[in-house]
Amino acid sequence: MSGRLRRWGAPGVHANLTPMIDVTFLLIIFFVLVSQIVEVEHVDLRLPTLIEPATAAPEDEQRLVINIVPGPAGRAAEYRMGTRAFSADAAGRAALRSALAEALAGNPVLRVNLRADRETRYEGVYPAIEALTQAARDAAAVRGQPVTPRLNLVVVTESRL
Amino acid sequence: MSAEARLSLRRPRPAAGVSLNLTSMIDVTFLLLVYFMTVTQFRTGEEVYRLDLPERAEGRDQPSDPFQLDDEPLRIEVAGMGGADAGVRIRIDGPWPQPTGTAGLHDFLRSRRIGAPGSIGLFAADHPIIVHPTGTTAWQHALEAFDAAARAGYSNITLQPPS
Fold first, then answer.
1. Confidence (pTM)
2. Domain count of chain B?
């Protein structure tokens, strides 16, 4: 008799850990992927801060992000596009232009978000705008039709309240 | 056999079936909810100006009437006096009253835009405006001047290469 009782076991609370472990691993994979994407696209910069500007929310369309990494005394240290880094000299700007032209040849209406530190001098920011302008010309020559990328200047908005 | 043991033997055996443990799923769903809320708060601050590249702007400005004269663009020179927190000098090219800062520039542009409330009406909303910062001007100041024109209701604003 006592044997039968032992086989049935005493009624108790059992935690089914299998789904928890499954979802935990899924979450880990999700966070790892998301954090890598965010890190690659968003270099830590102090973006220009404007009070109630006439800006628009960024669109969720396919876009590239160019980050201008600040150097000493307001100079641009390098340009970053995804995982690729381009030096802030003539060779780096030419390489940036080629990379942008390649991207525009694949997508002629690409959106390009330009992120620069608020302290960076304009002479370090404008070469990125110029590279995109020239890349659009290069891509148009390759495709044989107009290429019209859109440049988005990224800022941080503040409310007066 | 005691009376207690007999009672437990008579208890029906639970039927074998599929049971779904929802507790852990709900926990994780709330964790995800908190995560998305946090991320949304971080991203709300970033917004964009849509800037036309020179080719696109030139294409748009082609006059449909061949006898129509091109508008002379209004050129705004911006010269920063140091970093982003230092002062800025703004000069409007032409015989105009000179603003003391970006707020003054906004007031000037708004007061001369056709259709703006209380405006004396001089420039159309698509009148070309060129923002021309010096090379040493901080990006903050260049964008403040750009924003002053955009907030005043102008739609055809371009950035010039640094002087």
1. 0.73
2. 1
